[in-house]
Each structure stands twice: as C-alpha cells, then as structure tokens.
Amino acid sequence: MSRFFSKKYTALQPYIPGEQPKDMRYIKLNTNESPFPPPKSVVKAVREQSLKCNLYSDPTCGALVEKAAQIYGVKKTQILPTNGSDEILNFAFMAFCDKDTPAVFADITYGFYSVFADLHGVPYRTIPLKDDFSIDYRDYCGVNATVFIANPNAPTGLALSKPEIEEIIRSNPNNVVVIDEAYVDFGGESCVDLIEKYDNLLVTQTFSKSRSLAGARLGFGFANEQLLADLNAIKYSTNPYNVNRMTMEAGREALCQQAYFDKKCKEICNTRAFTADRLTRLGFTVLNSKTNFLFIKSRKIGGKELYEKLKEKGVLVRHFNGERISEFNRVTIGTKKQMEAFLFCVEQILKEKENEKSK
Q: Does pTM surpass 0.90?
C-alpha cells in the first residue's frame, strides 16, 4: 500500500475471487459460472448495443425492468438492477447498517459479507452453522440486527425452506432481512413473492449463475418501494449509470429466453446428481446441494492436497482455508463431459494415494 492509503482501510481484508490462471488450459470448476454460453439472440443484442457505446445507458434500466416485472410477477417499482448482485449487497450494507444497527450472518457463507461490513465500518456478528453445515433458522429470529442469509448458502450448497425464511423475516420487524438468492434456480425456493407481504425484506438475485452472464455483471434487488428508494439514494449518490447498455440489453434478452435457461438449469441439476452419486461411491462426503456446485470431502485425501493434485492435472476447483472447512473443496458443476473428466482425475489421484501408502 502507498503512504497515502487512508488509515481507516489499513486493516481491510479484501474479497479473494476464484483464481483465473493463464499458465495452461484448465477445466474450470472453481467459480460457479455456467458451462453453457448464452443464446445467440443475447449475443446479437449485445453486439447491437455496442454500436451505441458513445451514449450513456438508461439509468432507470426501463426496458430491462419492464421485462423483469413480467417474468417475476412484481411491480416495476419493486426492482432495482445493479452491477452484479454484489453491488446491491454493498448498497444494503450502506443503507441498512451502521454502528447502531449491526449486521448478522453465518460464520461460513459468502465471503463478501464480512468484507462489506469492514469496508463500511459496520459491526457484525457471525452465527456458527450447525455441525452438519446447515443454518438453524431459529438462530436468526429476533436478532435485532440486519440479517444477511445466502439461500442456498455458499459454499455449502444447503438451503432453508421458504417457511423458515419467512419466520426469520416475521420475527425481525424492525430490521431489514436480506435474502441472497444467487443460486436459487438450482433447487431453492425463492422469496421474491414475499416482498408485498413484508416491508423489511430485500431479495437479491444474479444473472451470473443460471443465466450464463457472469462476465456481463448484472443483478437484481427486489423489495417494496420504500426500501428501493433507500437503495436508489445510494445508487444515485455513487454511480447512476451502474448497468452499461450492453449488459442491460443482454439481461432483457436473457429474460426473453427463459425456456433455454430452464433447460440448462435442469441439465446442470441432473449432472450434479450424477457427479454426487459417483463421488459418494468413491467414499466422499457430499452435502445435499441446491446449487450449481458440490461441497465435498474425502476420508482418503486432504482437501488442500486434492485441490493441488487436481490443478496439476488441469482441473480447477475451489479450496478454502477456514478451520471448519479446510478438508472440503467446492466443485462447480460443468458439462457432463467436464464432470466425467473431473471424476477420472479424482479416481487417478485416489489410486496414486493408495499406491503411496502401500509402498
């Protein structure tokens, strides 16, 4: 850091994205992207908008919001598009948390929550997951804090039921409850339809996972008009043109191709089941994922060693150093062919490990 860096950020630990190495060609199963490209119509829409890059994008994202309202069955005034769902989460920490209103979230969850809290000087408390890595919804009832829950959770892949989420919302009437639904399209239950019922609910979603637009950076926030007015005050005080015109049009066209993405989500879920079954047969502990990834642990090889040996063989997965999860790896679900290649490498590594022990 330079000598000019503000002292208020000297202790900040930035979020660490999944690695993007360029030293060789990898099967990339480490950042939970979709293995499928967007439809050709989305690519065409992006290309057409790129010819208008000399003009600012629509700060209201009018056409995108109109289509989203139709798809999700909400009012246009209940949707806020953002530069990825990370941006709306950042807005939420700015708008609904301060020294008198702390944040609360799980000890093992999306790593950006603690980063945003530290960035904005927000006090926070983490609640340990249960021994089986699930969230006990009762731990979040009446906590007198702004609640952040990834549902399904990352990196575990486990999900709370909609009635459990609703009980958390109901029991915290004086605080905002943020439900981060980045992976909801792979088996979770969305709470978007609850925004009419509860004035303290903010639901976030992303186009990065189920709609093949990770590189475009597009997310949504769903809430009642009053909460969105708060978030818009933050948006228009930081970056009014937060969604560029190519991304905006890509998102609108993607919403028009819902049948394509539904088909691809189903394919990913089927491949997830196939992969989980094979890993279980190999002796792995595999959590019951409702996402486009699996959280796995082997009794035969350590988590970090498996990650390193897979990388040597050209397969990238995500390893975390947290004390409770250091023996686990998170594996994105790719195409059936990619997962077969991953499984072949895992079998090779386990055999090599057995041979080492027998010498």
A: yes
